Amino acid sequence: QAKPHGLSVQRATRATLDKMAGNTHHQGIVAAVRALPTYDEHDLLTLVQNQTDVLLLILDQVTDPHTVGACIRSAAAMGAHAVVVPRDRAAGLTPTARKVAAGGADLVKFIQVTNLARTMEQLQQEGVWLVGTLLDEEAKPLYACRLTGRLGLVVGAEDTGMRRLTRDRCDELAFIPMQGQLQSLNVSVAAGIALYEVVRQNASVKAQV
Fold first, then answer.
1. S-S: 132 plus which of 48, 103, 154, 202, CB 3.0-4.6 Å?
2. In this structure, how many other beta carbons lie within 10 angstroms of the beta carbon of residue 15?
3. Contact present, 73 and 104 (Cβ < 8 Å)
4. Tens of pLDDT along 162-183?
5. Which long-range contacts (CB under 8 A, 24 or more apart) does 91-98 make?
6. Which residues, in sequence order, are bridge partners of residue 175?
7. Residue from 37, 77, 87 nearest 55 by CA
8. Mean per-residue pLDDT, 78-89
9. Which of 29-38, 72-81, 158-167, 198-207 has the lowest mean pLDDT?
10. pTM to 2 decimals?
C-alpha cells in the first residue's frame, strides 16, 4: 500500500523496530513522518471565527495520555473541530495519545492554550456557548441543556474535576443522569456521551426545520 504512493519501504528486524518505536507495543510497522503543526489560542480564535457552527471539546487538567487520546477519538467521531487543553498540568499529544486516538489526531485540531479561563472568555466573546460537565446541585441533566449552535463542552479530570476559574467561565453546568448503582464515569466515556447528545440535539433541530 505504501509503494504506489512513492513511499520508501525497508525491511527490518523486530529488535530494530522495537528500538525505533521506543517500545515493544507496535504492530510491526514504523513510519517516519513530519510532525503535525502545533496550534495555540490564536489558531483557535481563527478557527472559531471561520466556522458558522463550531464544536469544541475542552479538557481541564486531564493528565493521562490514554484518556486524552480516547477523548480525541470520540471528538473526531462526533464531528468536533478541535480538542482544547491547557499547556500546563495537562497531557499533550504524546505518541501514546496519538495511538489511542486511532487516527483521530489527524482529523481534529489539538490546541494547547496558555490560560484556559482567559481563552474561554474569548470564546464567549465569539458567541461560543460553554457547557461544563460535573456532579453539582447547580447542574442540569445533560439532555435539558442547550447543546446546539456554537458550542464548547468542558470536561474536568476524574479526581479533581474542573478548576474553579474554569467552572466559573461556563455558561451552563450539566450532569449525566445514570440509572445504575455506580454514579461515576471516566472522563473519555463522559465526553463521548456528552458529544453524542450534541449530535442528537443538532439532528433534532435540523429535522424540525
1. 154
2. 9
3. yes
4. 899 999 999 999 998 888 777 6
5. 91/62, 91/63, 91/64, 91/65, 91/67, 92/65, 92/68, 93/36, 93/68, 94/65, 95/22, 96/65, 96/66, 96/69, 97/65, 97/66, 97/68, 97/69, 97/72, 98/69
6. 141
7. 77
8. 94
9. 29-38
10. 0.88
